[in-house]
């Protein structure tokens, strides 16, 4: 029988936290948010290391935590991978994995530990101690140890954040290869949007102790529900406008001293927030009639083969940011015009 993690918990102390989510067997859910937003605390509550003031956590029909029940981490049979490996320094890689299998006969411990070290590509290093392994190799041992005991759920607490980018990419690949074999819920705590997009089936964006939005990576990126979520997923062009007029299929928005027609029917007089991704903006010839917006370059920074440009808009303190090829001749205070693909405009909820 496949399992599903469900929780609905809240607390006020030591800090406010409120969360409701679910994660099905075989799925990886990423808890995405900045430091201090509550994601690691939520993971510790799922693990049984902390308890919420109210609510419940359950795996399918078995309650792990409610007003009466408070199962220990051992009773929940958790597979846990911490940020800094948590290996026993006096043990070899093989012995570290076997340490999670102490309830099994010795020969079965060895066989299963060797199998899982092979799955994380460390068979040749089974008899090395942690101090002689790289950070990425130590994290592979920690992953093998967490999975060797066939846990009911896998919890990953920022396991890749201490690693260099090349090592992280290798571990992403390893986890992606293992994922189809793991018919259990998997929860990853991360502040890395790229990591969440690569690995997660669903993302729960967290902020100030609550879940701001849940959905697939594409849904979160393309349809953020609020300014806070849009900012967390890297959307820099977030604006506030008043609806000047509207027809059946379009509305006219104010943007400083300029106007912008968008393919949304909105209420006249309403002040809305909206966002648009970088790729929906394009610099164009200043005198081209098709240009939607004009402004003056406030800042231009060369990043690799791209300019990152900030543009002041007349009549407002709001700015537009976009990227373009470094072959374009640009300068501070230069007047520019932009085409904005309004099909990519997303209206944020009030």
SSE order and pairing:
Layout: E1 4-11, E2 17-24, E3 28-32, H1 39-47, E4 54-59, E5 62-65, H2 73-76, E6 78-81, H3 93-98, H4 106-119, H5 135-148, E7 153-157, H6 165-178, E8 186-190, H7 193-199, E9 202-207, E10 210-215, H8 217-222, H9 227-232, E11 238-246, E12 251-255, E13 258-262, E14 271-275, E15 281-284, E16 293-303, E17 306-312, E18 319-325, E19 335-340, E20 346-347
Parallel strand pairs: 3-8, 3-9, 6-7, 7-8
Antiparallel strand pairs: 1-2, 1-4, 4-5, 9-10, 11-12, 11-14, 12-13, 14-20, 15-19, 16-17, 16-19, 17-18
Helix pairs in contact: 4-5, 5-6
Please give a structural write-up.
- There is one protein chain.
- By secondary structure, the chain is of the alpha+beta class.
- The protein folds into two domains: 4-232, Rossmann fold (3-Layer(aba) Sandwich), CATH 3.40.50.300; 238-347, OB fold (Dihydrolipoamide Acetyltransferase, E2P), CATH 2.40.50.140.
- It contains nine helices and 20 strands.
- The protein has helices at residues 39-47, 73-76, 93-98, 106-119, 135-148, 165-178, 193-199, 217-222, 227-232; strands spanning 4-11, 17-24, 28-32, 54-59, 62-65, 78-81, 153-157, 186-190, 202-207, 210-215, 238-246, 251-255, 258-262, 271-275, 281-284, 293-303, 306-312, 319-325, 335-340, 346-347.
- It has a six-stranded mixed sheet with strand order 6-7-8-3-9-10, with helices on both faces. A five-stranded antiparallel sheet has the order 13-12-11-14-20. It has a five-stranded antiparallel sheet with strand order 15-19-16-17-18, with no helix packed on it.
- The relative contact order is 0.12.
- The mean pLDDT is 92.
